[in-house]
Amino acid sequence: MASNEDFWNESSSSKFDFGDDEEDSSYTQGDCFAANVQENIPLQIDSIISNKCLKIILDETDSTVEHVVAPVEETIRRMFHAENFMLNTYRSFENKLQLLDAAIDIGDGNIIITVILFLSKTLNNNKFFTQLSRRKVAVRHYANYLIEKNSLQELADLYMATGHISYMKDIYCLLSKDIPNQNVQKLKQFNRDHSRELHTSEDKTEIQEILALLDFQIKHKLNSKSVIEQLINLCRSEWSRGNGDDVNNFKKLFKIDDFQFEWVEMSVLCKMQNWEKLIATFTKSVWVIKKKRALKSVIRPELFVVGISRHNPPEYVTEQFLSCISDASKVLYLAEKLKIHKIVVNYHVEQKDKTSLLKYMERVEPSSPAWFAIQSSLNNTDIKWKN
Amino acid sequence: MDLNRKLSSLQEISKAQLSKILSIVTATKYVVLEPSIIRPLERVCGVKWLKSNGVEKIFKLEPTCPSFENSSVFYMIFSNLAKFRQVVDQIHSQISQDNPPKNKYHIIVVPRYLNYFQDELEELGLYSVIKLHSFQWFPLHLDTGILSLELPNIYKSLFLQLDYTFLPLLSRALWNLFFVIGKPRFIVALGEYSNKILSQVDILIEDKGDCDKLDSDIGGIVLIDRNFDYPSALLTPGTYAALLNEVYGVTCGICEYKEESVDEKKEDRLHPVIKKQPVNFMLDSNQDLVYADIKNRYFTEVTSVLSTLTKQLKTEKVQSKEMALDEIKSYVQNKLQATKSRKKCITNHLLAAETIINVLGSRYETQQEVESDIIKNTNKSTNFSYAEEGLCVEDDACVTLRLFCLLCVTQKLSESEVKSFWRKFVHQFGFSCSFAHRYLINAGFIPEPIVASSSLNLQSKIRLPKFISNEFYSNANRFKQIPPNPEKINLKFPTCASYVFGGIYIPLITQIASMILNATPIDEIKSKLGGLGLMTIRNDMGFPLQRRSLLIFMVGGVTYAEIAACNLLETLTGAKIVILSDKIINGNNLMKEILS
Known about the structure:
The complex is a heterodimer. By secondary structure, chain A is mostly helical. Chain A has helices spanning about 20-25, 35-40, 45-50, 50-60, 70-80, 95-105, 110-120, 125-135, 135-150, 150-160, 170-175, 185-195, 200-220, 225-240, 245-255, 260-270, 275-280, 300-310, 315-320, 330-340, 340-350, 355-365, 370-380, and strands spanning about 285, 295. In chain A, strand 1 (about 285) and strand 2 (about 295) form a beta hairpin. Helix content of chain B is about 50%, strand content about 15%. Among the domains of chain B are: about 10-135, CATH 3.40.50.2060; about 275-360; about 365-455, Serine Threonine Protein Phosphatase 5, Tetratricopeptide repeat. In chain B, strand 3, helix 5 (about 80-95) and strand 4 form a beta-alpha-beta unit. By secondary structure, chain B is an alpha/beta fold. Chain B has 25 helices and 15 strands. Chain B has a seven-stranded mixed sheet. A five-stranded parallel sheet of chain B has the order 2-1-3-4-5, with helices on both faces. Chains A and B meet through helix 7, helix 9, helix 11, helix 13 and helix 14 of A and helix 6, helix 9, helix 16 and helix 18 of B.
């Protein structure tokens, strides 16, 4: 109705009055509203309320105001010196991030955790995890804290939300550290839920093996700390009964390394003092040379001899395995160390080395069978001594 | 004033701090101590001092709680959430929720309590019932020139968990120490943590105050992170003190081993466990003159020295039988006590030496050969086979893991070798060790596994192990740590610090100290050290050193072998070197933390 476009910008222009319309319209007589027109024009504000009371009402208006907060640096320093501090005054997103970055910068884990906990309570998960994921130090500290508190589900959430998928296996390791049987279900559940995230094949295999070992132990009501320990116990129980099928199945199940497997075999047989089986299992005849036998094992012959010597086998057993070593000097060295006199004496006799033989005689107990053997060799006129 | 006397008197300040905390309660009090805190506390203040400060009874923290009657109770624990919860539970079970006593229960957390400890109390409604106090003792002067904070878990926290929680306490310890010995004018910081500690010390000085001494007792300080020289901790040492620590384990400067009752499970093991002789003595050069003589000697010399001393004792005994009466009287008055204590010392050391030979002897020779090859960078595949075989042959998780870590740091293992070893390791020692894999990655021994298939996870970057850029051999050559002819090194009367490792390797801190004490031009020092990693040098007209004394702060633990190497350098240069660390460690300690 106003032709003037600036009508609304000028407050001094005529007040918009409902009464204006009334004058032009035809509702002037006999209208129930007409009589009230005059009464609906509001009164001036200062006639209904005093200025003082108006001020009270206006002061009450509640708008968010930017509070003046202490500088972030100052609060962090106060925290560093273990003085009183208030974090909940930092409500703006910008301030919160400044706090976090300052905490990381000063290098105090206590402060970092305090700030992170404050952020976790005052930011929604999305924002919280996004910001954390941009700060590796923060993620680490929060993860350490959750591990300390044993809050593994929250830890899983943290890793998933901040893109640390490769760390999921760690949670599995933590879960499996202390296993009463009930937790096996938890482990299996975890595996089902997160198996997609275990992205290296080694991780997958390891976790499957953990579960396999636990299943095996539960099924057979056994309890041992490791695969190898379980193997040892199996060997003991199986071989004392005679058969060994379960042992081989167990080996296949976990794809146990040959060296480890044979070392266990050797050690258990020695411990059980089953020398015949030891010799039968680990030596084979060399088809060209009649009496010679060779070591049938992935273990180096010298190491094998060292291994069996710990269990104090009878001399003939050590001699048997010493003869499998091809390097004569190594044989001599070990024989001297283990006091297998027969081999040392034979060696020196073969070498026609009288001096060495005499020298060795000093280390032999007088009137022992070895001593007599040396004496008889020395007195043997058939031997042409070199020295 | 003699620096050593000063360092030995540091505990007077710790006592003053503790006294202030205890005096909050004026009435009689009881103290409950966590078992592992007892030994260091003994060296800080001792039981007598506690009792003379109003402590009526001292208990050990046990599952069942003793009755405290009406006395106030101070619990003292290391800063660990599980322990804290244990104590809080114990207190909680004793009090009535409706009317809890005030000012009765206190927990002293060493070295400081964390903010989330207070959160725990708040959640349980115990915030005003239990008061928390932080107490950080001054470094303990365990032996001449050896300062140790004797705080547990620092290496694990900093280097395995990559956590900054303990950094402020290390900086506070250094700042405290500066009040007594003054702040040196020449400061070198090597490594991420050393640099952070230095900047935190700056903040403490700025906000809380600086030492008012004009002159420092020490010419310079070198702060260095443990991971700058792992081989010094991983190689088998050859000096007596280091071997004591290897075989028995030394805590707080005390070597103790009690005869254990025959454990059936141990008897059952395939690999026979070697029996150790029981011993109990303090590694203190001032009290034990025999120890002072042999502590840094190469082990082969130790046995001959001990046998000479035994013979001397025997001749003394024979002589004493032929003494006249007045001679006997003078002997008993003056010499008998000394002779008795010397005899006890010698006996202890003989037993210890015997055990060292028994425990290490069987594999020592081969181990030495392999370690020598590793340092010379030869026979890599043989070395690796030895490590893998060791899994079964030694059947000791720490020993085999240690060799593996040494190989990772020096000769570098391929991805397949690492995988192969780890699989066998976990088979041998149990899947409970699996988590150690994460620690090995964090410490930088093995690289983060590469993502095989492309996943939605764009953030997994391939993390190179720290040592690929800091090649071990090029650094070692730059600092001349590897003698060209180890067999020619004199182990009996050593002139080269490599004797601590049988001639094959000189610890890095010794070479750095040597450079500084010999006034190598500062630019050369800067360029050499800069190649190692993050480095800061502050020279406030302090170089060349005005006082021929150096403080070396090793963050993460220091070994007796490194200390011995520095002691030799002291003798050769006439300088004084004080070594400060959070703990005296050996390689097995590090491995135990990785496997925990």
